[in-house]
Design goal:
Helices cover about 20% and strands about 40% of the residues. By secondary structure, the chain is of the alpha+beta class. The radius of gyration is 17 Å and the shape is globular.
Length: about 170
């Protein structure tokens, strides 16, 4: 993608504008004066659930990289994330890299996403990862933000981020 700017010239844009719609939790947390924390909780190559495979236009038997991460703001639960990554579209992505930075930050620096779909809704924390990571009861409501990223017609990742009750979602696009 080229960006033409009067009196400055033409340059190749490192990441198209859809990249600016990525919501970096680090920025959100640090913008309110809190300390950002990230932990990779789980990573494995696995077949996705049927609804994930369908959303990504893949076969259910295809293997994807499945990650679970938790994010804190000054050591308090802020968000937890489950992500299915098409590792065929993300060369160079390693477990070691994801132990240092979040999948979103890695993707932002390495894959020029040019299309995305996003939806939001309320759900229950349920037993397991979400309730544990957010330190809430399984019956507590949480905000779910789901995003599917693409590079042309190739699915890159499907992300489900859960935020505890009271989280306010805002963005400047």
């Amino acid at each position: 993608m080229l960006e033409r700017r009067r009196k400055v010239g033409t340059r190749v844009v490192a990441h198209p504008n859809v990249q600016t719609v990525r919501f970096l939790l680090r920025r959100e947390i640090e913008a309110v004066g809190k300390t950002y924390g990230y932990q990779l909780v789980h990573i494995e190559k696995a077949s996705p659930p049927t609804e994930v495979a369908q959303a990504m236009l893949l076969r259910p038997e295809d293997k994807l990289l499945w990650t679970k991460s938790s994010f804190t703001a000054s050591d308090q639960p802020y968000c937890c994330e489950e992500r299915w990554i098409n590792f065929h579209a993300t060369p160079g992505l390693t477990k070691e890299a994801l132990q240092k930075i979040s999948p979103c930050e890695w993707l932002l620096g390495h894959i020029p996403i040019n299309r995305a779909n996003m939806s939001m809704g309320a759900t229950m924390a349920n037993e397991g990862f979400v309730a544990e990571a957010l330190r809430v009861a399984p019956a507590d409501p949480v905000l779910l933000v789901e995003r599917l990223d693409w590079l042309d017609n190739m699915p890159i990742s499907l992300t489900r981020r859960h935020f505890p009750r009271g989280h306010r979602f805002s963005a400047t696009i």
